[in-house]
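During the reporting period the student researcher (J.K.) took over the structure-prediction task from the postdoctoral fellow and processed the backlog of single-chain submissions. One of the processed entries is reproduced below for the supervisory committee.
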Amino acid sequence: MGFYSPDAPRKRDGSGAVRWLATVVLSAAVGAGVTLYAESAFGRNGVTEAAVPAAAPESSGGGQTVTSVSVSVSDGITQAVKRVQPAVVGVVNYARVSDFFTQTSKLEATGVGTGVLIRKDAQYGYIVTNNHVVEGAAKVEAVLEQGKHVQASVVGTDPYTDLAVLRVPVAPFQSVQPAQFANSDDIQVGEPAIAIGTPMGLDFADTVTAGIVSAKQRIMPVEEPQTHQTLDYQAVIQTDAAINPGNSGGPLLNIHGEVIGINSSKIVAPNFEGMGFAIPSNAVRSIAQEIMQTGHASHPALGISGYSLSSLPQQWWPDVPVDYGVFVRSVSSDSAKQAGLQPQDVIVAIDGRTVKNMADLRTYLFQKKPGDKVTLRVYRGTHRMDMTVQLGSMPTQNTASAAADGRGAEEAPFGIPNPFGD
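J.K. obtained the following structure tokens:
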């Protein structure tokens, strides 16, 4: 996810169907990210006023009465920031750049994002950030609060949730406490939301901004940064904060200094302000834990490869009575084959929910678990049929270059995995 610009309203069918603004990525370059703009209203930022004692009236000479008051302000934001700020780091993405004239290559910093320390053990510290912050990196560095650069390895990434986990030596983080996670299901609309990050690069590291939680669940697309392909639709936290490049991967905090989300995107368009989004902490915790344990995140797989029918030239369309759905290019899993699914079938529904395109199909699949069964509605020519398929498992691959893990920059980066493969 990155920066989006609304063009026109579009409707998505299916469970929890909502109207949302169709978005076009304006900038999802590595390190592009989000931050939150501090609003001044005390009540919105968790700043409370103490009781105001009554004071003796004083005459001002013109018949008016002036009352003297004494006000005490408790700044919860300051305390929340103090608890978490040492755990927030800058994340620098280095790419291998070739010189056409000298026929040599070198590493250059191509983007800066943000990350937050979430765990450490006797040897390593673990940092969560966005996938789009480290995608394509040949080398990754974490930059600590005092400006120290530490080389990091990419444990694993998940393009479908836009999350990644980095590993760093624990020594520079000996005195740093990992950030604590809140239950994102418990957040309330209108409660304070605080962000710490690296907007516009390391010159503005440790920038603190604040706003409120504007909505608990908004459905937004997760897009592949290089191709802008929509990989999934994700329920995210909306905040009224202004967002700046470089805050991607940084924490969104509650007034207690607990992480309620990882900042990931905003809408960018004329006349639009205060529409930023963060991946909820419960999803972050689940995916990060899986990556730390296995090196990747696993998602259910249908066992096919295919295309959105609408993305194909019409002369390639099979003779079906619909203009939407997923065109099946090939079938790889035994379960899908046994169910009767064949190449050139068009999937138009899953468990009774309309499938307009690949993103619709994937979004519903990701609500399931490997081993679950789903019912597909399929057109084979003009013949409509239903079939039941048991889902397999699809482990995601590392989208950073092998060089980020010390395996040599000559190895090519992993590509986006087959979204419906085994």
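The committee noted the following: The chain is about 10% helix and 40% strand.
J.K. will present the remaining backlog at the next meeting.
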